[in-house]
# Entry
Amino acid sequence: MKILGTGSAVPKFTVTNDMLSDYVETSDEWITTRTGIKSRQIITTERFEEMAALAGQRAIDAAGLVPEDIDFIICHNVCNCYVTPSLAALVQHHLGITGPNCPTMDLNSACAGFVYGLDICDAFITTSRAKRILYICAEEVTRMVDWTQRETCVLFGDAAGAMVLGEGDGYLASKLTSTPMPDVIYYRLPCEPTPFETGEGIDTHMAMQLKGREVFRMAVSSAQRDIKDVVEKAGLRLEDIDHYLLHQANQRIIDAIKQNFDLPPERFHSNIHKRGNTSSASIPVLLDEEIREGRIHRGELMVFNGFGAGFVTSAAVVRY
Ligand code: UT7
# Structure
């Protein structure tokens, strides 16, 4: 499998840390020191599926293709207003791909999902069941948080990152893990009541809950383990890797991981200061921005690494 082209899209409305202090008791100083975030983009009047489709169209353009060339659309998404149809089916509609020979499917492995989806795409491409997959990670995390809870609402942003994947030898190794810890990060929506439901569990709504410190610790230790393992699995050394793109959850997490590797610090990329944590979209958006800004080039080696609710982690070695 190989990356043929990338694209991304963010909402037009930028919210600075100072603007957040209108909603909760917080400050630019607290958010900047604890997270590295200065601003983020938040969905206002846009339609989420149109933002995802726009990122997808940009990836198709970058690959030098047209939407009709795509023979599978896979989206990764934790939550959006449509439970069904899938986001991938909505994207197909917005891109004007009439089908029926372009199947669509959604995946969800929380903030670590980007590499989970890459693994699925690789399975379809290496077994010749798809030739050109449009893969989009799109998230509107700002609609999963309680905007009166300063512990969570200041952390997130909305975004979509996309790529077209095709045949090639750019996917060198991957590692996926899952450890059952359902209470460290969760978000529960209510389902429709039935006349048969018992009282327990009817009111299941709970805006995003986050045990931040616990996640912080697990993120740092799992990243150290997974990055070493996946690079070794690819038959490479850490210093052979040109670029490290980690899930953008907190600049302090990235810095803590970075400190444990004896590598030039500029190999660890970051855009969290202007995007916030955009869940599964964070790595593909960062990748697209770094490629477009000329910091990542064809033929270079990259490591992707993420973590999220589950508790799940993922890592991959990819040649661009
Ligand atoms: O992508 C997966 C999801 N991402 C994560 O789970 C992120 C991982 N965790 C983190 O990045 C950090 O743990 C946080 C940024 C969430 C929190 O940073 P922290 O250094 O672990 O702070 P804390 O939760 O220990 O809170 C320290 C203090 C508390 O006050 P007291 O108890 O010391 O008086 C909080 O109430 O900071 C307070 N606080 C805030 N103050 C101002 C928490 N949120 C805010 C805020 N503004 N927004």
Observations:
- Residues 26, 30-31, 34-35, 111, 150-151, 154, 185, 210, 212-213, 215-216, 249-250, 277, 308 surround oxa(dethia)-CoA (CB under 6 Å).
- The domain at 2-168 is CATH 3.40.47.10 (Peroxisomal Thiolase; Chain A, domain 1).
- The chain has two domains: 2-168, 173-319.
